[in-house]
Give the backbone structure.
Amino acid sequence: MNAFWIITTGSLVAITCSLLGCYLILRKMAMIGDAISHAVLPGIVIAFLYTGQRDSMVMLFAAALTGVFTTLLIELIHKKGKLQTDASIGVTFTLLFAIGIIMISVFAGQVDLDQDCVLYGEIAYVPFDVWLLDSGINLGPRAIWVLGGVLLIIIAFISLGYKPLYATTFDPGFAFTIGISIPLWHYLLMSLVSITTVASFEIVGAILVIAFLVVPPATAYLLTDDFKKMLMISSGIGILTAGSGYYLAVALNGSIAGAMAVMAGIFFTLAFFFSPSHGLLFKKLRKKRALLQGHEEGATTI
Amino acid sequence: MYEQIIDFLSLSDPNVRTVVLGSILLTSSSAIIGAFTFLRKKALVGDAVAHSVLPGICLAFMIGGAKDPLILIPGAFLAGWLSMILIDKITLHSRIKEDTAIGMVLSVTFGLGILMLTFIQHSGNANQSGLDHFLFGKAAAMLGSDVIIFSAIALLMVLTVSFLFKEFALVCFDREYASSMGLPVKRLDFLMTSLTVLAVVIGIQAVGVVLMAAMLITPAAAARFWTDNLKLMIIMAAVIGAVSGFTGALVSYLYPSMPTGPWIVVVASVFAFISFFFAPKKGILQYMIKQRRIRLMINEENIIKAGYHIGEDRKDFTSSMTATDLIRRRPMPESKLKGHLAKLTRQGYFRKHSQGWELTNAGYKKGSRLVRIHRLWELYLTEYLNIASDHVHEDAETIEHFITPELEKQLEQTLNYPSEDPHQSKIPYE
């Protein structure tokens, strides 16, 4: 039963992150996602100190604010300060993450978080933190409810805003001419990335959030040219990653989040070489065949 | 607490000396190498390299069985290089963009590192304790023998940079020129990349892999806001790195359980953010002040021009005008207009009357100059760039505030002192 809950939790994180990640990697904002997933830490700690508990609306709200604040700060330094993009991102999120880590060390007694948890989460403890109603009914692990809720929000967001999101991602110029606000959808997406990050953070840690945001979408991107299919495939790969990662961790007696990140990497490697449409192997084969055909044609004309 | 700080600052304890010396060397040499990483726009690649060093360290430990820097450094170095090659290969051989490739390599290699680290921790090897200090850094964990090795590498890096300074700078700023001069650009690239990886590898002792990227770029980014001189920039970056390293050592001494990396990064970032906002010339605040000043100048010049236009309409430049007259030509809130007018009166462009204002001689001259430039520019655009005459006004509205007297002369000569603009308005000359 524990295995079931852990894999389910991992899958929920995987689907949520992969769906948003598809937009991030196509908008060339993968590293902004990385930055947000680090930078929300001080927001989490402050919300923790303020409310004294983990899962609360305050926490999600604080996180969304920190995430948007981070993107605003990066843009301010980049546009007004004329600092190159990569450095603006790098300088901003390392500072916020460092502040978060220091706060965790300083308020160690008051905050139920530690450095290890920040990096690789506590997914192994998910089954034990159950939601008990006053009447004594056991509703299962709390994380499932939180992550399930966030996943529903994301799915609602993507299905309601599918068209504007699609337009601003693939053709901002066109989106602008038909009157879609590009900044509005940009910041909405950033707030949702922040909310997802925070909901997933304490469960799987910063590393797995980034891994799930970037790797399954990139894998799906090598398997299809249809955006809707890409959303589906990356969610599917996310679930496979969560399941296989869990068993790898059990076999090696190591960190579950670490193992899931490794499995995500393995699935990407497979797609990188063996994808029928974009894999290295088939591309080479096709090239060879084209060359051979060229030779044969050349031979007949001579 | 206070005594402890005095103790630390006096450097009387040989252990303290070791740690302080080690930290300063590690962070300042990382900052020096990082300046080139920054200039080559490889900040985020540096982040990926730093994270990917973790599995290298773990593998080296599993093979060597001890936390000996002579085993761990080569392992970390190889892993860092490998991650760099991976990013290149992924972007070269697939349609994945570089930022995605960086994110993937960063998270997957770090995940692998965490998996190996937890595997080692659970395997019950007694030597492993302290391996997790590589995550967030621990300056105080450095032994005397470690410091000698790290210092030697740091010195080697700094010497390489000082010998090849010109070559590195050329490759960073203008690769094509560098290769046309016969410099071995590829080999210099290789060397710079190796130095970056090496800087990461030795810096993580103090800063840790998670925040190591900041040590490479934050000091350089801060220094960039103060100077355009590369040598000076590198020296400033090294000093900022050294100060942050020193703070890290101090914190590590006062609070042994505290990781040092975050403190080092926060100190360097304080320098950086102060520079971003307050640096003279390049800071954001300075930029905003400059912008405001220009907006103010444009507004004031527009009011003088409105006064001139009124005079032109009435064929009398000494007639007095009311605020309503001016607002009709140049719409703006009355209070704002009056503020500007008070200033312009002090500066001697307007004279105040009981019924309103009139242009002084200086105001008339300035107004006629603005109108002249405006109309000359409109003519220039229609005659030389073949732009329709109903499309040139907007452009002239902006440029009239920025044309220098020299350019004005040139316009007059090029157009041969024309008498009318494309809309048949007279061009006023002195």
Remarks:
- Chain A has one domain: 2-296.
- DSSP finds 13 helices and two strands in chain A.
